[in-house]
Write a sequence for this structure.
């Protein structure tokens, strides 16, 4: 089973869920805001895809962070920020037995279709 982590209000997450349903792919949804997120999960994702990929620097939450939080960001700081502010994570995050994918581009869709 694939776990989709994101926000219920995120358009891309809603498109991803609809696509999974249309393709008959079994999944469950984890709302980062409502259900929360622990540091171990963020660290596991970062180990798979890289912390730089996980941090959404385009969003409002990133822009509203104090400059001190954004300055000199490294993996430890990024993990702490994403744990404290799960909406900083690029969405959606797909996780299944031994793999993690971020976003919903063509390559991710191919991976999801392949299982």
């Amino acid at each position: 089973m694939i776990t989709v982590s994101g926000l219920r209000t995120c358009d891309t997450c809603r498109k991803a869920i609809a696509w999974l349903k249309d393709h008959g792919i079994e999944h469950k949804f984890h709302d980062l805001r409502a259900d929360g997120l622990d540091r171990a999960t963020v660290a596991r994702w970062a180990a798979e895809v890289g912390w730089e990929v996980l941090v959404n620097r385009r969003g409002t939450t990133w822009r509203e962070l104090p400059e001190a939080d954004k300055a000199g960001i490294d993996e430890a700081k990024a993990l702490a920020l994403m744990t404290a502010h799960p909406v900083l994570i690029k969405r959606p995050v797909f996780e299944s037995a031994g793999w993690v994918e971020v976003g919903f581009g063509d390559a991710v869709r191919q991976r999801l279709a392949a299982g």
